[in-house]
């Protein structure tokens, strides 16, 4: 696991955007696994800037997103489809027909999850998976639990996640209680992983991720078993990492 400690959120965003742009420049037809949330928003802004400067080209990229709320349509401002359109896709030359986000309105959610995994495997798998991390150590919406899932599945959000995400909604009652998320197996299958974290409220989860015991109660700790993970965090999120 390679750990890059940035001074602050802005520097984290710049470093991460450069990592992604370099990755795309080396593999212009890459399959990117994308993530949403407050953490990557600044990184997407930087990526748009790099695109406008002619330093990265999305024309051959395919993207698959990590997760989506159940019950929200892509037009809902808090859906992850809307987030992706608004924060990246509408501002770069990506072919939108090659951008995939789980369908939060699917009639048969289990079947649509299986189709999602099928699509990812037909695409040849995810080349680079971007991740944030929940304050409770979740990745995607794989919440701390007795057991974790391999494939894409429907899940209930932890109370702490509902509380954390309430800041994006008018009231906590509007936060969906369920979501669709790629499973830990799906995340682990991606060839490379880039995880971002910023702020002291992520410091404990980051310490677990980097050097804690591997446990389903700290889903991000599973990433210790992946061979190619780059973690870009700011100093506040690095607070509890033991330095050698
Ligand atoms: C959300 C998402 C995750 C995200 C995490 C942290 O609920 N499902 O994919 O990484 O929680 O979000 P934020 O970056 O807003 O702190």
From TrEMBL:
One of its GO terms (molecular function) is glucosamine-6-phosphate deaminase activity. It holds the Pfam family Glucosamine_iso. Gene3D superfamilies: 3.40.50.1360. Its EC number is 3.5.99.6. GO terms for cellular component: cytoplasm. Residues 11-229 form the Glucosamine/galactosamine-6-phosphate isomerase domain. PROSITE patterns: GLC_GALNAC_ISOMERASE (PS01161). SUPFAM superfamilies: NagB/RpiA/CoA transferase-like (SSF100950). Keywords: Carbohydrate metabolism, Hydrolase. It catalyses: alpha-D-glucosamine 6-phosphate + H2O = beta-D-fructose 6-phosphate + NH4(+). One of its GO terms (biological process) is N-acetylneuraminate catabolic process. Pathway: Amino-sugar metabolism; N-acetylneuraminate degradation; D-fructose 6-phosphate from N-acetylneuraminate: step 5/5. Belongs to the glucosamine/galactosamine-6-phosphate isomerase family. NagB subfamily. Catalyzes the reversible isomerization-deamination of glucosamine 6-phosphate (GlcN6P) to form fructose 6-phosphate (Fru6P) and ammonium ion. NCBIfam families: nagB, PRK00443.1-4. This is Glucosamine-6-phosphate deaminase.
